[in-house]
Amino acid sequence: MGTLLVVGSVALDTVRTPFGEATEVLGGSATYFSVAASYFAAVNLIAVVGEDFPEQHIKFLKSRNIDLSGLERRPGSTFRWKGEYTYQLNEAHTLDTRLNVFETFRPKIPEAYRSPDLLFLGNIDPNLQLEVLRQVKRPSLVACDTMNFWIEGKPDALWRMLKEVDVLIINDGEARLLGRDSNLVQVAKTILSKGPKHLIVKRGEYGVLMFTRDHVFGAPAFPLEQVKDPTGAGDTFAGGFMGYLAATGNLSDVSIRQAIVFGSVMASFTVEAFSLDRLRILDYKEIEARFREFKRLTHFEDLA
Amino acid sequence: MGTLLVVGSVALDTVRTPFGEATEVLGGSATYFSVAASYFAAVNLIAVVGEDFPEQHIKFLKSRNIDLSGLERRPGSTFRWKGEYTYQLNEAHTLDTRLNVFETFRPKIPEAYRSPDLLFLGNIDPNLQLEVLRQVKRPSLVACDTMNFWIEGKPDALWRMLKEVDVLIINDGEARLLGRDSNLVQVAKTILSKGPKHLIVKRGEYGVLMFTRDHVFGAPAFPLEQVKDPTGAGDTFAGGFMGYLAATGNLSDVSIRQAIVFGSVMASFTVEAFSLDRLRILDYKEIEARFREFKRLTHFEDLA
Questions:
Q1: Is B65 helix (H, G, I), strand (E, B) or coil?
Q2: Do B120 and B132 contact (CB within 8 A), yes or no?
Q3: List of chain B residues whose C-beta atoms are within 8 Å of the C-beta of residue A190
Q4: CA dihedral in degrees (A96, A97, A101, A106; nearest 10)?
Q5: Residue B46 φ/ψ, nearest 5 degrees
Q6: DSSP summary character for residue A301
Q7: Of A60, B56, B156, B202, whose CB count within 10 A is highest?
Q8: Which residues share a beta bridge with B45?
């Protein structure tokens, strides 16, 4: 089993959806990623929190066997995000963002973490993502996320970083912005010509598309009876995806497709409750069962 | 091979998209349906056109072996639709609709057509859809389409009609309106409790979901490098779907899933050009090849 290193945010979220609300609950891209990945592999987490970060969350992350030696605790407050969703659950409306200690976050990779087998660069300044890459021995697979803010604000640094990345995992709208086209096949051509060997486009309730130079793979999202809170679905997807690859150590095309399905499975659990509440009580048997349901969802030949 | 009867519209369309425009070209739900289905099975078409309907279109439909004994030619003008699409190709903006002879259309099924194996009730007044059902011996499979206008304007007639239908094929937004819920799983429960055994939800570039009481099947849309005009994609889907079922005579779960994939394949061709231009030059070998590509698009185990 390979080691998996993730750099990103740990936050306290306040979220309202048509189905309820949650105040100052555990959130952040690296949090969702790590907890999802922890079902498959050992995770080393690089992030920063403030003095006010509740001890219970530390305990929870440790209980998932996530190594927190790289979780800095700094004077000041933890990153806060406040947002809401309408019935159109695909899109979050940010009400308030307080970066707090995250604003001056400079990821420092502890000596013991510098040879990860897999690395996930969460959505932070592309210059910081590059700094992380400089600190580690080249992993066998590097994946990253980014967002509109960096695509528009720091395109040069972003493209420099993408040159060194194997898998770019971003959402629909970000992909179109980055590839400067409304057509995703054209977008994929542009992005894949600049470094990444895989482009994974997250489309919320519509599932995922993965483009390589020669193939496309499409997986629908698992249709759920109740979606309570979509927050963290994308980061959970990435965590399940990278966790599975770390667990198997197999980076073949088939393995990457299966990793996408495991990522989708993990995301389908996350959205069933607020914060990481569904992941807290998740059992590996449930993951396997939903993976099997995914086959029945998508196969049109042998339905065994 | 079974006989397939379709009732719907034949129209002349004027369409503008970011990739071009077409004026007074062949369109209409029953047209797209019939031509798509004609690649798999013999089709009997029930529709109405005006005196101005160009003879070349009649010739084209006949060349596809579509039986036109049920195509009425009436005094007055043919149904006209004018619409446009922005880069957000999933949604048509209607600029003008002239029902003309279609306004007083009362489908009369010729004696020879009254025992179809499969019947597709295109998007017309649900009372007329019921009238068609009264005129035929119960086919082994009845599918139908509808739209917001009837869901809001004639809900009672619509539900009465749906009681007698096996497969309802509608788009995302229509499904949510009909099932009065934003969650498609809930929507499916409501609709499947009132008659249809299969609900097929068309989601444009995001593909298709099929719900039955026990299963869900999801197929992504085929990712295309160039989508020129999405007009008729949904009707083409329905035509490929029903045509395949008519050809095989097999209504098993696996066969219905494969029919959905063939429907998706046909729709993926239609959108590559304006009007039915791509279908005019389509070869059955291309259909089979894209069906195979669909397996590679969706499978995550054996990629053979």
A1: coil
A2: no
A3: none
A4: 180
A5: -115, 115
A6: S
A7: B202
A8: B6
Q: Which residue of A has its CA nearest to B186?
A: A225
| Phi, psi (deg, nearest 5) at residue B240 | -65, -40
b/e string for A84-109 if b means 16 or more Cβ within 10 A?
Answer: ebeeebeebeeeeeeebbbeebebeb
Which residues 183-222 in chain B show a CB within 8 A of chain A?
A: 183-186, 203, 206-207, 209, 211, 215-220
Residue-level pLDDT, tens digit, chain B, 304 residues? 689 999 999 999 999 999 999 999 999 999 999 999 999 999 999 999 999 999 999 999 999 999 999 999 999 999 999 999 998 887 889 999 999 999 999 999 999 999 999 999 999 999 999 999 999 999 999 999 999 999 999 999 999 999 999 999 999 999 999 999 999 999 999 999 999 999 999 999 999 999 999 999 999 999 999 999 999 999 999 999 999 999 999 999 999 999 999 999 999 999 999 999 999 999 999 999 999 999 999 999 865 4
A134 to chain B nearest CA, in Å? 34
Q: Which two tokens stand for residue A227?
A: 């979606």
Burial label for B51, CB within 10 Å (0-12, 13-18, 19+), is exposed
Q: Does A252 touch chain B (CB under 8 A)?
A: no
Distance of CA B23 to the CA centre of its chain: 22
Q: Which residues of B92-106 are buried (b: 16+ CB within 10 A; e: fewer)?
A: beeeeeeebbbeebe
Q: Do A209 and B220 touch (CB under 8 A)?
A: yes
Contacts of A204 in chain B (CB under 8 A): none
Contact (Cβ atoms closer than 8 angstroms) between residue A122 and residue A30: yes
CB contacts, 8 Å: B206 with chain A: 203, 206-207
Cβ A218–B216 below 8 Å, yes or no?
Answer: no
Which tokens is A192 given?
Answer: 């894949």
- In this complex, the residue of A87, A182, A223 whose CB is nearest that of residue B209 is A223
Rounded to the nearest 10 degrees, the angle between the axes of helix A284-298 and helix A253-270 is 110
**Measured between alpha carbons, how far is B140 from B255 in angstroms, rounded to an integer?**
14
Six token digits for residue B74: 């009436």
Of B182, B216, B300, the CB nearest to A254: B300
Residue found by looking up tokens 């530390």 in the block: A58
**Quick one: which of A160, A165, A136 has its CA closest to A150?**
A160
